[in-house]
Fold:
Amino acid sequence: MPRIAVLARTVVDQIAAGEVVERPASVVKELVENSLDAGASTIDIAVDDGGRARIRVADDGIGMERDDAMLALERHATSKIHEANDLVGVLSFGFRGEALPAIASVSELEVETASADGAGTVIRVVGGEIGEARDAARRRGTTITVSRLFFNAPSRQPFLRSARSEWRGISEVVTALALTRRDVRLSVVHDGKQVVSLPPAPSLQSRLAGLWGAPFAERLVPVDDVQGAIHVSGLIERPADVGTSGRRLFLTVNGRAVRDHGIVRAAEQAYRSTVPAGARPTLCLDVIVPADLVDVNVHPMKAEVRFRDRWVVERAVEHAVRHALGGSASAATMGSRAWMTPGSFAQPAAVDVEVLAPVTPADDGLLATTTAEYYAAGDASFTPAPIDVPPLVQLARTYLMFEGEGGVVLIDQHSAHERILYERFMRTLEHGDTPSQRLLFPMTLHLGPAEGEAFEAHQELFARLGFEIEGFGGHTLIVSSVPMPHPRFDAPRCLRETLDALSGDRTAGVATRHERLAATLACKAAIKAGDILSPGEMRALFTALASTTLPAHDVHGRSTIVQLPWDEIERRFGRR
Ligand SMILES: Nc1ncnc2c1ncn2[C@@H]1O[C@H](COP(=O)(O)OP(=O)(O)O)[C@@H](O)[C@H]1O
Ligand SMILES: [Mg+2]
Structure:
């Protein structure tokens, strides 16, 4: 007997099935992708027992002629590419021509299809054995039913998990497809019960609302940004909401759902200083890059992409997310809906500027120098845009309140000042020095051993921030200059508390040394809740906050701004 034989076709198909058909979810994915490739606008999915007993996908796509349907069940029959060259830049989902035969080799598969209303074809395949084609009257489109998955592959059956777990896999696949192709009507029936029914959606937000409910979708912040040839759009979680429920991740590159840790990490990077280290935001992002800069043919399940220049793509994503978080739409809100459009924090309701008292220099003391000078210290090219400051009221010696375009806005004075100082300290640490003031009488600080060590470790950074401090043997410090954030700045207390916080490991996480120091110092140096502010100080605080990159978020993952939209107020007063 010859030792080498050409493998029978069904065996080859079964081997291929090992790659393509891992679980019921992968069958659903292949079938739905075929329907989408066939131009379907409605897809109905039905599964029984987590897909283990039966999976049926019905579409209204172009259907198949009888000969084509027969061919499609043969290995490597595909209508989507004809030669190797066609592989470059393929836009359809499938192109290997192996899914149908692979699935058919390990199940009972029935294809019912018609390329025009009326005369159609039914073909049954049992364990890879293709039966006779029969006539069937049906509307244009294709229905594929896969029953008894792995009935003839005993080695695979033990790998099927519980119906619940397989069902979870299927719903993940359907969710990703529903989000990728929002133009398609989609329904899912599980064990005879309708679980998903999605009309075509005009936007990502309305699709998300259909999947996870309107309250969830409405709390997300829109992203829309172009960097060079890269377009990043989508919806992301507000920092104030991060961690309150499980994170959801969804990412497409050029319209294809993919997994990409690099992009997710870049987006998370953009949340730095708005959420605690390690917090995981919900992200739904669509990334469009020129087709010649990506290779989608990397993974057999096509879930990964390879970028020609990954760094550029990741920076574009980080920039887009950062930009979205910088807008006021990302501010916390009472009620579900945000009303502030990105950037509208700086455009409050129109007010008659005449009625506002001019800011006197003494009043402006909260920020030591004018906003312009204060930023120029870090970056000469930066001048904050002049903004209209609305009338501000201080509430409970803690919050500033004003009327915005779409509702009432509250600012937490401590959190806001913290954000302002944090960004100022970061600029100073990274770009240059800050104005500091010599003390008339140098002050002496006696530190414990841990605080002393913390000081030594950060000595050079303190100097850069404008502290002039000399060690004086043991752990005694002589402080002769301090930066001047505001007249209420209590330098010894601020220094002591900062060193105390830095000596513990309390702020440890992914933050850099600069970020830790800037955040700690900002927290200790900022005005506190309970400090009464003059009108000029409130205005200075407002102006400076509007000039920060992330005005709506403090440095601990809390909000600096809370918005109360008119429609929420009207709802509570029963006006709508
Ligand atoms: N739902 C469908 N509607 C129309 N044609 C289909 C459908 N499913 C499969 N086909 C045809 O069968 C062929 C083989 O499908 P498949 O094995 O998944 O390979 P591929 O999708 O890689 O081409 C497809 O190229 C297509 O021509
Ligand atoms: Mg396919």
